[in-house]
What we know:
Blueprint lengths: L4 H20 L11 H8 L5 E6 L5 H15 L1 H4 L3 E6 L6 H11 L8 E4 L8 H17 L12 E2 L8 E6 L2 E5 L1 H9 L5 H14 L1 H7 L7 E4 L2 E4 L1
Parallel strand pairs: 1-2, 2-3, 6-7
Antiparallel strand pairs: 4-5, 5-6, 7-8
Helix pairs in contact: 1-6
Amino acid sequence: MTKGPISQLRASRTAATGLSDAALSLEGAASGKGLGHDFLRHVERTAVILHLIDAYDNDIQKSYQTIRDELKEYDVSLATRPEIVALTKIEGLDPDIIEDELSQLKPLLLPSTQVFAVSSQSGQGLKELLYALQATVKKVRSVKAPKPKKPAVPVITLDNEDDAWQVEKTGKIFSVSGIRIERFAKRTDFDNEESVQRLRTIMRKVGITHELIRQGILAGDTIVIGTQRMTY
């Protein structure tokens, strides 16, 4: 059951703080550093991106641009995804200061981007933000993706036929096959997080990750590449 924005309002104060903390871990995430990389993998499945910018940040323009750059580096399509921007922790700030900070952000945004000033402590602006989020998500998800002409398993062929790969789904197991990707998987040390992240980066760059998401993969599902197994 989907809850409306009013019923979500009670939980929004905790959620707003959590989202803000998550955003702080994004710098360097696209290159596989820290937990931010896992966060970005979850962002791939979102319909709308909500940017929370701390009003007490020394450089709010830099903070926003850092997140935008990480999204673009990780996946160009994320940089074009609909977004909403919210300036947070505004309790106690004079209206003139809030307006000044909002005016600093607006030159970096598309004209269609909605901007809000909110406080998770006082609740100021949260109801309006939640309504905007609900309406935007509903609008994005109402646009149905075109149906493929054939239900066949997609095969992507690059310049070299060794780069061709395909994905087959059986329950919660996703089998990836292809000469080059199987070779990469065979050389991967699955006990070494850095080695696994390199494999994930390769999968993302050649489009395998996008196809896994399109076929409905969820956290915890199994990916089989040749004779190797890994958890999504």
